[in-house]
């Protein structure tokens, strides 16, 4: 699997709060993580870094403990990694009044064998490119996306 990642600070922010991690292929497992701190709140860059490092650490520490032939166990590993990342952010935020509103998106892509598993929260996106066709495979968790869905369903 080839992985490409691109971040852009955009026009409204002074700081890029994105944090990306990609692993080498390790024991037939490849891991890619993207987090984008919530702009407009203090600590977005801290939240994105914490989330990425926490999710990576959780997956790497627990990957050998699961039955990788069971897709449900891999999905649960990703879910728990995202939950762990959230707990880490909340713990830091609780201890610092300036950071209590910090948050981040989190995208996890774990390739094992010939299958890819995804965890997604927020409005960052994951796309798949196959045979020169680009397909968006995540749906934003945002107010705007909700409005678009409601409009399309009426």
Which range does the strand content fall in? 15-25%
CATH C-level name: Alpha Beta
Report how far the terminal alpha carbons are from each other: 39 Å
Low-confidence stretches: none
Total discrete domains? 1
Number of strands: 6
Instruction: Describe the strand arrangement of the main beta sheet, using strand numbers.
Output: 1-2-3-4
What does this protein look like?
The chain is of the alpha+beta class. The chain has a four-stranded antiparallel sheet with strand order 1-2-3-4, with helices on one face. It has a two-stranded antiparallel ribbon with strand order 5-6. The protein is globular. It has helices at 44-62, 71-94, 143-153, and strands spanning 18-22, 29-36, 106-112, 115-121, 127-130, 133-136. The model has no long low-confidence stretch (mean pLDDT 87). It has one domain: 4-Layer Sandwich (Phosphatase 2c, domain 1). It contains three helices and six strands; from the N terminus they run ββααββββα.
Topology:
Blueprint: E1 18-22, E2 29-36, H1 44-62, H2 71-94, E3 106-112, E4 115-121, E5 127-130, E6 133-136, H3 143-153
Antiparallel strand pairs: 1-2, 2-3, 3-4, 5-6
Helix pairs in contact: 1-2
Defining traits:
154 residues, alpha+beta, Phosphatase 2c, domain 1, 4-stranded antiparallel sheet, two-stranded antiparallel ribbon, 3 helices, 6 strands
